[in-house]
Amino acid sequence: DIGSPRVLSIQSHTVQGYVGNKAAVFPLQLLGYEVDPINSVQFSNHTGYPTVRGQVVNGDELWDLIEGLEANDLLYYTHLLTGYIGSLTFLEMVLQVLQKLRTVNPNLIYVCDPVMGDEGKFYVNPELVPVFRDKVVPVATMLTPNQFEAECLTGRRIRTEAEALEACEILHALGPSQIVITSLDLDKKLLLIGSDKLNKDEPARQFRITMPKIEAYFTGTGDLMTALLLGWSYKYPNDLSKAAELAVSSLQGVLRKTIKDYKDVGLAPNMKQLELRLVQSKEEITSPKVSYPAERL
Ligand code: ADP
Ligand code: PLP
Ligand code: ZN
Questions:
Q1: Which of 132, 136, 99 lies closest to 116 in space, CA to CA?
Q2: ipTM rounded to 2 decimals
Q3: Which CATH number applies to 6-296?
Q4: Is ligand 1 within 6 A of the CB of residue 222?
Q5: Residue 272: what pLDDT?
Q6: Ligand 3 centre from 257 Cα, in Å?
Q7: Ligand 2 midpoint to CA 51 (Å)
């Protein structure tokens, strides 16, 4: 290893468009990370389109790749990043992978986006919920659920900022020192809630970032958000709020650029087939202007 931080990223791949690894790899590379993607599925496109075709990778196939890396002494990683995982057996295998990576690097940071669903609906089999809660969350360093996923993991409704902060406390007690609820949908605005527990005996440092709600339906934003949080938090290891400010500002920059490009060619940006204009947003990713400050709670 010659020094760059190195991320093993286990997420979905789409041939066209930007979700999963397609939303995470390029931004992390722009931020200077070596990123090694393992694709948990290979689909034609994201789920916003009427048809999705492709293949699902199983747990044994994942393990085969890990054994290949191991045989060549290539299992040193600074980070494991996981997103969409389609089956119980694959999720169980991800836990085995984590264990192996931590025997090589005991300081490995595990950033987990517990992808389960959104707006009250599951897009994975609900049998994954107890496995995430009881086995995966406890070994994660950073957890980045959306509102629905935080509700599933804590078994509580989250309708207010206070309830989101309580959910963070419950999640900290399960294991992760850094929690980011990536969006909390309140009437007219969106909140991101962050909670950082630098050390077990101190109370968590909690903050909010208020974002304008854009009237469009984006797919892959959660995946991009988690990648950016990983990217910036390793550069600001003792300040999750700073990392979140940069990540949110980048993301909002990408979304503004996306909307503008669609409108410029006469397309309505409210269609479900929308794709993030990621390749066109290099500046927004490498040099975000902090326009959404974190407020300490
Ligand atoms: P997921 O896609 O996993 O459900 P979120 O919905 O929390 O994740 O989206 C992640 C981030 O994307 C949010 O923190 C927010 O910055 C941004 N985002 C997503 N949708 C919108 C929207 N309609 N308006 C403004 N920001 C959005
Ligand atoms: N479609 C596919 C194939 C995915 O894998 C994912 C998430 O990984 C999504 C859609 C939704 O992504 P997000 O939750 O970031 O909007
Ligand atoms: Zn998500």
A1: 132
A2: 0.96
A3: 3.40.1190.20
A4: yes
A5: 86
A6: 21
A7: 14
